[in-house]
């Protein structure tokens, strides 16, 4: 029987619990099977409060999850220190949230889970409890023990994007961009497209930083000084990359047929098009880890937590993509 996916708890005061319940209702027939690293009592209580007919079954190990999945949501115990209140994060539960992530990674590294799927966390609550990392990605990189920076991809049915710089003010982006950073993101993206997505010869379109990709230096020097040399180095390494491409003309339907992923220079250049095209189905993927990790492309949604209004669409997409990536990785090595 196939290995289950390991789904982390996320922030207990957010929507992670309810979308896990709803995802089980959606996937219980055809799968993929997952095991929630959570508190069975809190998930059972949440299901009752929301009127969801989701039987919750505590399992002793992830190996027990696939057999149970068709009849109940399998849960590996991660007890909470305090009862969660929707919309009100409690630092007392930070250790359970962090422990859920640690356990999921350990299961994936040990070959007992096919992949890691993370529910959204609330960084402020974790930091109040002493969490020293900027977010999931940095923590996962530390747990994995990798010697390079992981790369973020947003993947949807219509578009895959990779931002070279992520969470920083727009004014800081030109100074943070380097040829090395662009090449690193391109190399990791191309390797993942081949190994995790089964694309034999990945094609990258590399966006310019400035309007019209700098227009020969008239609208900024960075595209000629940084982006073009990075594209040349990627091509020299055997990666099919073209650019710098004017970002305003690379995301329409005909243009998207010419590449497998877009390498973008900053956060919104990447995320605006993918969220416009695939808002409910986009998945956050961390590339460059020794295991597959995906996550829904949204936050904790405190404003609707506990109301039953949360959509499980992005989590379902994250679970399905994680299973597909894990299968491809096993096939392609």
Topology:
Elements: E1 5-8, H1 16-27, E2 34-38, H2 40-50, E3 56-58, H3 65-69, E4 73-77, H4 94-109, E5 116-117, H5 123-128, H6 136-144, E6 151-155, E7 160-163, H7 173-176, H8 179-195, E8 203-207, H9 222-236, E9 240-245, H10 253-256, E10 261-264, H11 267-278, E11 283-287, E12 293-296, H12 313-332
Parallel strand pairs: 1-2, 1-5, 2-4, 3-4, 5-12, 7-10, 8-9, 8-10
Antiparallel strand pairs: 6-7, 6-11, 11-12
What does this structure look like?
The protein is built from 12 helices and 12 strands. It is an alpha/beta fold and 333 residues long. Helix 8 (179-195) packs across helix 9. It is 39% helix and 16% strand. It has 2 domains: 1-146 and 289-333, Isopropylmalate Dehydrogenase (3-Layer(aba) Sandwich), CATH 3.40.718.10; 148-286, Isopropylmalate Dehydrogenase (3-Layer(aba) Sandwich), CATH 3.40.718. It has a 12-stranded mixed beta sheet, sandwiched between helices. The mean pLDDT is 94.
């Amino acid at each position: 029987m196939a290995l289950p996916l390991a789904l982390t708890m996320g922030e207990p005061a957010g929507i992670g619990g309810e979308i896990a319940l709803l995802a089980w209702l959606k996937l219980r027939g055809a799968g993929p099977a997952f095991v929630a690293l959570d508190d069975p009592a809190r998930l059972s209580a949440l299901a009752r409060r929301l009127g969801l007919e989701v039987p919750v079954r505590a399992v002793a190990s992830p190996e027990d999850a696939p057999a149970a999945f068709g009849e109940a949501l399998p849960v590996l115990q991660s007890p909470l220190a305090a009862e969660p209140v929707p919309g009100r994060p409690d630092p007392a539960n930070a250790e359970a949230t962090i422990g859920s992530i640690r356990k999921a990674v350990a299961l994936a590294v040990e070959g007992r889970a096919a992949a890691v799927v993370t529910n959204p966390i609330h960084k402020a609550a974790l930091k109040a409890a002493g969490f020293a990392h900027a977010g999931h990605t940095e923590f996962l990189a530390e747990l994995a023990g990798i010697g390079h920076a992981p790369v973020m991809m947003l993947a949807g049915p219509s578009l895959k994007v990779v931002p070279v710089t992520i969470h920083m003010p727009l004014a800081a982006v030109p100074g943070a961009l380097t040829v090395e950073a662009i090449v690193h993101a391109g190399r990791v993206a191309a390797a993942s497209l081949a190994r995790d997505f089964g694309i034999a010869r990945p094609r990258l379109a590399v966006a310019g930083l400035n309007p019209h990709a700098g227009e020969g230096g008239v609208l900024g020097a960075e595209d000629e000084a940084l982006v073009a040399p990075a594209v040349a180095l990627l091509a020299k390494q055997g990666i099919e990359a073209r650019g710098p491409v004017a970002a305003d003309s690379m995301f329409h339907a005909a243009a998207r047929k010419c590449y497998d992923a877009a390498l973008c220079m900053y956060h919104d250049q990447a995320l605006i098009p993918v969220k416009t095209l695939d808002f409910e189905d986009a998945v956050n993927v961390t590339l460059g880890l020794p295991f597959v990790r995906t996550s829904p492309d949204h936050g904790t949604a405190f404003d609707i937590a506990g109301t039953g209004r949360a959509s499980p669409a992005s989590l379902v997409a994250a679970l399905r993509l994680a299973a597909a990536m894990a299968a491809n990785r096993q096939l392609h090595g």
